[in-house]
Each structure stands twice: as structure tokens, then as C-alpha cells.
Amino acid sequence: MNPGRPQLLLFDIDGTLIETGGAGKRALERAFADAFEIGDFEQRTAAVEYAGRTDPGILAALAQALGVPRDRFEAERETLLANYFDGLRTLLREDHPSKRTLPGVVPLLEALAPRPGAHLGLLTGNMEQSARIKLDAFDLNRFFPEGGFSSDHADRREIARAARQKLEQHLGQRFAPADVVVIGDTEHDVDCARANSFRAVAVSTGWVPRERLEAAQPDVLLDGFEDLPAVMTALLPGSTAP
Ligand SMILES: [Mg+2]
Known about the structure:
This protein is of the alpha/beta class. It has two domains: 7-20 and 98-235, HAD superfamily/HAD-like (Rossmann fold, 3-Layer(aba) Sandwich), CATH 3.40.50; 23-92. 45% of the residues lie in helices and 13% in strands. The protein has ten helices and eight strands. Strand 7 (199-203), helix 9 (210-215) and strand 8 (220-222) form a beta-alpha-beta unit. Helix 4 (70-93) runs parallel beside helix 6 (128-137) and helix 7 (156-171) crosses helix 8. The chain is globular, with a radius of gyration of 18 Å. Magnesium ion binds at residues 12, 14-16, 52, 184-186, 206.
């Protein structure tokens, strides 16, 4: 880290900024089940893990669990994705008890956004369209001009690389790896930071238990974003508290 130097802060979406109340998972599953006319979908895909995975990775795992051949999957891919985005928009309009912006997120983003030393971006396993649809439902797109998505690359480590490159281009400014911070709720977020020599800030607000995050050895492990001064210090080392 370089205290006082501008930091590029790359935020994960699901489990870090928001909880969709399962809308993402349900929309993807419905689109998939419809495209391939599959029954007993839930039982057959119960072992597929979603947290921290990229959308292409999840789709490939679903196809494998259901025995959908690759060529058939590729032939249906565009229709499936269009139905997924539509379904996501619809489901996110519905009320759900666990559909929410996570505690402290909006005050944190509002505190970071005007700071000359803080630049915000996205780093997510969502495709750009699904990311924007999800953030729109919570009015959070306004904080994030650009980001890395699984429509850029299917591998999260490469998404991290793309995120930095796209933000540098957008901002007209370079960031040393030590000045790029990845903020996420799973060990996959920590891993993609490590692979690029970025800093990793893990937050145990998602599905991954704290012990599993600890084992991934992030630079900082937060319980959430509610303690604003502590979070600002973790994200912007060397800066004064808000
Ligand atoms: Mg996440």
C-alpha cells in the first residue's frame, strides 16, 4: 500500500453491496429450466455453488449437472441470457424480506465518491447487463462508472485485470497494483486480488463464513461496513477519517 496515493476501489456486488433475496439465482435457474425444458431442476442442481462464481461458470456448472450437451447449450445461450435479464428485472421489482442494500453501503459510497483519493469501480462475476440491472434496483449505478464483468472474461482473475484496465482508461489515470483494492465477500474475491498483486479486503456479510474468509488471508477482514471510520481507514490507508 502507498499511504495517501489515490486508490482504485473495486467492489463485488452480490453479498458485498446488495442481497437480491435470491432473485439472481431464481432468474438464472428459471431461464435455464425454460430453455432446456427441464423438470426436477432443483434436486439435480442442488450441489451447484453460486457465491463468488462468475455467471459463465455457473451456467457451465448447471449444464454439466443437467447433462446438457455443449452444442445445445451454445445454441440456446443468447435466448437464455435474454430471458435471464428479463426475469431478473421482474423479480427485483417484487418485495422480498432479504432484498436489500447491505448495512452501511450507501453511507460508505457517499463518503468515498467525493474524495479525490478514491475511485470506485465494479469487479463482479455478473455480466455487465445483470450487474447493471441489479444495481439499478437499488439505485447504486450512480457510484460506478465502469467495471470488470464476466462479459469481459469468464475467469475472475482476468475480470480483475480487465476492471483495472477499463477504469484506468475511463479515468485517464494509472494505478500501481498496490493501489488497487478488491472488496468482496468470498475467497474468490481474495484470490483474484492476490493473482494481480492487488490488496484484498474481505467482508463477511455474504454467504461465506468468517473462518473461510480468514483462511483465504485477505489483507483486511471486515464484519461489515457499518463502522464508517474503520472502513475508510481500511480502504484508504493514510487518509484521515471522514
Ligand atoms: Mg459476492
